[in-house]
Amino acid sequence: MTENIILKVEGVSKSFPGVQALSNLDLDIIEGEVHAVVGENGAGKSTLMKILSGVYHKDSGKIFLFDKEEKLSSTTETLKLGISCIYQELTIVPLLDVAKNLFIGNLPINAARIINIKKLYKDAKEVLVTLKMNIPPNTMARDLSIAQQQMVEIGRAISRNARIIIMDEPTSSLTDKEKDILFTVIRHLKERGISIIYVSHKLEEVKEIADRITILRDGFKVKTVRNEEVTKGEIVEFMIGRKLDKYFVKRNVEITEKIVLKVEDFTRQNTFYNINLEVKRGEVVGLFGLVGAGRSEIAQAIFGLDKAEKGKIFIDGKQTRIKSTADAIKQGIYLVPEDRKLQGLVLKLSVIFNMTLIKIRELNRFGYINRKKENIVAEKFVKSLNIKTPSLKQTMSNLSGGNQQKVVIAKWLSMEPKVLILDEPTRGIDVGAKTEIYSIINELAQKGVGIIVISSELPEIMGICDRIVTIFEGKLTGIFEKSSFNGNSIMKASLGEVM
User: Any bridge partners for residue 467, and if so which?
Assistant: First the structure.
């Protein structure tokens, strides 16, 4: 790898109302390297990437590209300068073909101002060969897999002669096989001298693909190190600023034998079949299986979002009928959904609104909301859950993913749940926020709440649960007690081997 610095950031700072996002940050990118940028949500990663891609303007500091100071005042300018950003939310146009998506905004035009179709498809084919994509350039983008769409995004950057490509959580929607393909392409780009700035929460991937790693915390750079000089555990400690004696907090509490939730023969055709499940007071039960196994659908049926065609539900030993979410809420059953932004929050409204929305009737008096009580409720959970927000009036979309998740949880905690279902509670949040979510789960269990956790991460489900139930193609394939947890056995059961 040539030690040729092509991008240098010196003393860059950026603030937003009530938040110092970056403070006097330095960074350098070497030609032909994969440079990972890691840190907790709110550490400043996204702000830095948006400054480098021209979306945000820095408040102070300098940025040098190929030894020349640049302002990076717009995304158009950064593209011309050779910096391209591939965001987590892809920008593929489904109704255009691959060739047009590759060169969108940069289509070859002849002297008559007409698209040169022959050149377009010839150039597109060359880009696809570079990406090792064996698909015709006239393939419609809507027919591509997510991984293929992501490759087209990379191809778009190549077509613009990008020297630096920023990748923001590039594997969030990819399978392991698709991730391997992406990494092969990244290594090929390195060989061509293209530098990759790789932003990810997944430290296993960072350790696999990065040459150097820059760690951010609270808007400051903690350090930049070569990959081989640091362990994953050390990265975590640098990210959160404290030692991790134990990643998962153990509970010193004896689970009662009192069953708070029991599900018998739960069935929904083509989704899940004859599910038998029970949760005791103070117990954390995990649902583990592959994506599409039916875990979320089971949870949604318990919560009344979907209807089970057959089966019974018992709360505290009494059979109950749950036909809607209102019925579930009356019984003290609450669900923190997998997609917090789409299903759990109103992103354009405030923290206090989102946190107290479910208690609106309780806070209402003669047609007016008791603002004093509303503030007391919200402040209680901001403090107890360590929600980082400059004020209760802060717009939800301005909070980090981990803090957004804690607001969703706080909303239901204010209702004092008997049963709390958490669907992928740590997806898309950083390590520090994960440990805080684990502590919240721990504290709730100690208070006697029955908890169901759905997770696709085996180490997580083994670390926080007292019992694990495996699901494969809608069927229960295994029940594992804490004393007999075994990763291989649990994984085999999740792949359909009935235990």
Answer: 285, 481
Which bin fits 321, alpha (ψ -120 to 50), beta or left (φ > 0)?
beta
Place of tokens 């990643």: 247
This model's pTM is above 0.70 = no
pLDDT per residue of the chain (499 residues) written in tens, 0 to 9: 447 999 999 999 999 876 788 999 999 999 999 999 998 767 889 899 999 999 999 999 999 999 999 999 999 999 999 999 988 777 889 999 999 999 988 888 887 788 889 999 999 999 998 887 889 999 999 998 877 888 898 899 888 889 999 998 888 777 777 788 889 989 999 999 999 999 987 888 999 999 999 999 889 999 999 999 999 878 877 886 755 445 666 666 667 789 999 999 999 988 999 999 999 999 999 999 877 789 999 999 999 988 899 999 999 999 999 999 999 999 999 998 887 777 778 888 898 888 887 777 777 777 777 788 888 888 888 888 888 888 898 998 888 878 888 888 888 887 888 999 999 888 777 677 788 888 888 888 988 999 999 987 788 888 899 999 999 889 999 999 988 888 888 888 887 776 5
5-92+144-240 and 259-332+417-494 have identical folds: yes
What's the CATH code, domain 5-92+144-240?
3.40.50.300
Measured CA to CA, the distance from residue 370 to residue 478 in angstroms comes to: 49
Tokens of 181: 């393909």
Topology classification of domain 259-332+417-494: Rossmann fold (3.40.50)
Residues in contact with 86: Cβ distance below 8 Å, sequence separation at least 6, in sequence order: 150, 153, 154, 157, 165, 166, 167, 168, 170
Strand partners, 16: 19
> H/E/C letters for each residue in 18-79?
CEEEEEEEEEEEECCCEEEEECCCCCCHHHHHHHHCCCCCCCEEEEEECCEECCCCCHHHHH
Report residue 433 as tokens. 């926020």
Rounded (5°) CA angle 236-202-458: 95
What are the residue ranges spanned by the domains of the chain? 5-92+144-240, 259-332+417-494
